[in-house]
């Protein structure tokens, strides 16, 4: 399930929360963060929000995501 979306960087990239609903609390338990281009194409998934933000910063500076 997809949760919140965060804009990051200056070129329109987004970070999407992905996870599962906890049946006890009915809250989303985020398992990873997806980095997407402005057109919605997924570029990669990361274990933390900070890693996803850093990936976008590297991408926008001209570095690869690898």
Structure report:
The protein has 66 residues and is α+β, with helices and mostly antiparallel strands. It has one domain (2-60). The chain has one helix at 49-60; strands at 2-8, 13-21, 28-36, 42-46. A four-stranded antiparallel β-sheet has the order 1-2-3-4, with helices on one face. Strand 2 (13-21) and strand 3 (28-36) form a beta hairpin. The relative contact order is 0.23. The mean pLDDT is 93.
Descriptive terms for the model:
single chain, 66 residues, alpha+beta, four-stranded antiparallel sheet, 18% helix, 45% strand, elongated
Instruction: Give the biggest sheet.
Output: 4 strands, antiparallel
Write the element-wise H/E pattern from the N-terminal end onward: EEEEH
Rough shape? elongated
Distance from N terminus to C terminus (CA atoms, Å) equals: 25 Å
Oligomer: single chain
Low-confidence stretches: none
> Which percent bin holds the helix content?
10-25%
Major beta sheet, strand line-up:
1-2-3-4
Fraction of residues in β-strands: over 45%
What is this entry, summarized?
The protein has 66 residues and is α+β, with helices and mostly antiparallel strands. The protein has one helix spanning 49-60; strands at 2-8, 13-21, 28-36, 42-46.
SSE diagram, text form:
Elements: E1 2-8, E2 13-21, E3 28-36, E4 42-46, H1 49-60
Antiparallel strand pairs: 1-2, 2-3, 3-4
């Amino acid at each position: 399930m997809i949760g919140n979306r965060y804009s990051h960087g200056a070129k329109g990239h987004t970070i999407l929360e992905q996870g599962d609903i906890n049946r006890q609390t009915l809250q989303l338990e985020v398992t990873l963060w997806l980095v997407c281009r402005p057109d919605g194409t997924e570029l990669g998934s990361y274990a933390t929000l900070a890693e996803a933000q850093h990936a976008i910063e590297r991408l926008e500076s001209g570095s690869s995501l690898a």
